[in-house]
Design goal:
CATH class: Mainly Beta
Shape: globular
Number of helices: 2
Number of domains: 1
Strand order of the largest sheet: 1-6-7-4-3-2
Structural class: alpha+beta
CATH architecture: Beta Barrel
Radius of gyration: 14 Å
Order of helices and strands: EEEEEHEEHE
Amino acid sequence: MIATLLVCVSLTAIDGDTVKCDGQNLRLLGEGVPFVSGVDTPEIGSHAKCMKERKLALLAKARLKEILAEGGLTIEFYGVRDKTPSRRPLVNIYDRNGNEVGQRLLKEGFAREWRPGRHNDWCK
């Protein structure tokens, strides 16, 4: 599969696993396989199930913002979109050293592995 490289004038963190590129939300795939594997971060704001999840979500978002601020990013899109109503493009974002951003969040403890039907409980 051939990747399309995306260029963003403006790139901001929406939450720990979603970025906004020039007004379009993009979902981090974390080098996973669409609809089979990926990364998941806690839900932010009213989508969180408890106060602990809200706090973890803010930490994940802050870390993603730090990584984005480092610059030198490459965004790859393979033409696959998620199944949410907004149909966010699923992307891999690589830092200047070639590390995939979702994988960095996973290794640093800000994200967990995502699999279909598996719910990450951030409140425990």
